[in-house]
Amino acid sequence: MKPALSRSRASCATSFHGVGPTITSICTRTPSLGTGPVNQVGRPAAWWDACVASLEDLIRPERYPRSLNYDPAWVVSLDMGPHPLWLLENLDLDLTPGARVLDLGAGRGATSVFLAKEYDVEVVAADWWTPAEEVQKVLDAAGVGSSVTAVRAEAHDLPFEPESFDAIVSVDAFEYFGTDDHYLGYLTRFLRPGGTLAVATPGMTKEIRTLGAIPHYIAECVGWEALAWHTPGWWKQSWELTGLVEDVKARLQPDGWADWWLWHDVTCSLRGEDPHAGSVGRMLAADGGQMLSFTLLTARKKA
Ligand SMILES: C[S@@+](CC[C@H](N)C(=O)[O-])C[C@H]1O[C@@H](n2cnc3c(N)ncnc32)[C@H](O)[C@@H]1O
């Protein structure tokens, strides 16, 4: 029998949409928990309980009710950065069923599965680093293979028809290609007039250019790439000045640093790593929420 992740702490009655891996495939934590009694799948009980306890920290029904439909072990198995479903849920999208949505920088496909299941939309999961065949396997296993198509595509060379999407969504990827002044003009070509643009990207409470230098603890982790991390104000002004979009809304993810730290802490814990030891942990700990969060941006293409 396949054991289910206990959801008692979350008091949640619904079942997960995700058909993710069992805990055994993602939890590589402390071998010292590998002795003692074993559970029904032959795993050390203490090891199993510790993994479940870590994953349960990612079940937050009050804050992220829609993400609750997805097995946290499945989300962790697709890890490429802070909880992508929480970021997507924070974007408060309003999508019409049947709409055609581009998920740009979709990574391993978690956000595309969420879009298809939560909004009943047709999705193109476009990504550069992850082979499309790999993403398609995730989509098929999650039961959305007929409504989501994986495409290997570079963000400046998108293989789509003009005005072919009702919405373009990008979670934790825009910082790699979207800060160039030319980019919004290029990307909006693929959006129908009135279509929605929604982006979640690492954000700052203060502009680095105003500070005059990248804070040392951020530079030690990501170096010059932090120059692409901006305040909501920077994004709002940059997008509004183009005249290409309207109704631009930009804000920091509420408690974004805390969410980021929680994700980092849980994923380190599952790997048996000290969350303060690596470069990301040192950066987040030194920041303590002073500067780091995610910027959440939405706008509509002018009709
Ligand atoms: C930090 S990962 C996040 C992936 C996913 N959105 C998530 O949140 O799990 C950043 C993603 O951006 C994509 N990316 C980076 N540069 C890109 C580019 N020039 N064109 C398309 N995708 C790009 C990468 O392929 C990668 O999957």
Automatic annotation (TrEMBL):
Identify the InterPro entries for this entry. Erg6_SMT_methyltransf, Methyltransf_25, SAM-dependent_MTases_sf
Residues passing through the membrane, by range? none
Q: Where is the Methyltransferase domain?
A: 101-195
An example of a Pfam family matching this protein is Methyltransf_25
Question: Superkingdom, according to UniProt?
Answer: Bacteria
| Protein name, as recorded | Cyclopropane-fatty-acyl-phospholipid synthase family protein
Q: Which organism is it from?
A: Sporichthya brevicatena
